[in-house]
Amino acid sequence: MTTVYDQMTNNARTFVSVRGKVKTIIESVQTNCDHDFVEFFDKVPHKDSLYTFRVAKLAPSFTISIIMRAVKTQRVMFKINLEGCPFLNNPIMNKALGSSYRKVLIFVCGKVKVVLESVDTDCDHDFVEYFHPVPNQETLHTFRVVRLAPSFTLNIVMRAIKSQRIMYKINNLDGCQFVNNPFMNKVLASTYNTLIVNNSFFKCPIQPKVYYLKNVGKAFMMPTFHPLGQYQLTMGLHMSQSRAPFVMQIVWKYKVLNIR
Q1: How much is the pTM?
Q2: What is the average pLDDT value for the chain, to the nearest integer?
């Protein structure tokens, strides 16, 4: 049927930082499948961050089982059994798993799929000198703040490209309040956590230096129920001290299609 590519946020040899004086080291990542409904599930050759699997038969529904246990004692630390389709339609029903899911793959259960067509970044070249992908790093973007940014606001607009109808809009969200407490907006918090590199959360005022963002292509948010069509999601960062229409901006273009 269809080959679907997913993106592992870290490969088996990457350190995953945790706040405080503790760090987690991933020793190995192994994948497997039943070779019936799913024909294969393995790494894409020469692509450290990509895995691929092929669904060979229609999967009308599924469940997710997760177990975390201590290797030495076999003590179970965490366990969950979850209905897959309700979760895919509303990942926020499980915040911890929802955050991991958004970092790996975006698709919708049923007869609909989302195809990301492009991601574009831009800046004012005044407060922010540049904002672009890191060469030879598929998942990283970088930007350089050259002037102190004491405060900023966020504007987010989701619109249908053909009709220009606005599907979702946030105006003048206080950026400093948000970075201090991202869960003031749960949907945007998930996007923010997806972008942050090694838990390097932003603080106001934003200091002049070079910053990095990850998974920009996977960070776009969308409503649970989404009509078919072609859409554009624009996220802009604005400052009262700048005359430019935005200081930084990310534009995602994507299509929502029927699966045939």
Answers
A1: 0.59
A2: 81
DSSP string covering 38-95, please?
EEEEEEPTT-TTEEEEEE-S-----EEEEEEE-TTT--EEEEEEEEHHHHHH-GGGSH
Rounded to whole angstroms, the Cα distance separating 25 from 147 reads: 36
pLDDT digits (tens, 9 = 90+) for 28-85: 889 999 998 888 888 878 766 677 888 888 778 888 889 999 999 999 888 888 888 7
Q: Right CATH number for 114-258 from 3.90.25, 2.40.350, 2.60.120, 2.60.40?
A: 2.60.40
The pLDDT assigned to 73 comes to 92
27 CB-contact burial (10 Å; exposed 0-12 / middle 13-18 / buried 19+)? exposed
**Residues 41 and 53: beta-carbon distance below 8 Å:** yes
Question: Tokens 């790093």 sit at which residue?
Answer: 137
In terms of Cα–Cα distance, which of 234, 235, 33 is closest to 154? 235
The ranges assigned to domains in the chain are 2-111, 114-258
Q: How many Å from the N-terminal Cα to the C-terminal Cα in the chain?
A: 9
The two structure tokens encoding residue 229: 């069509």
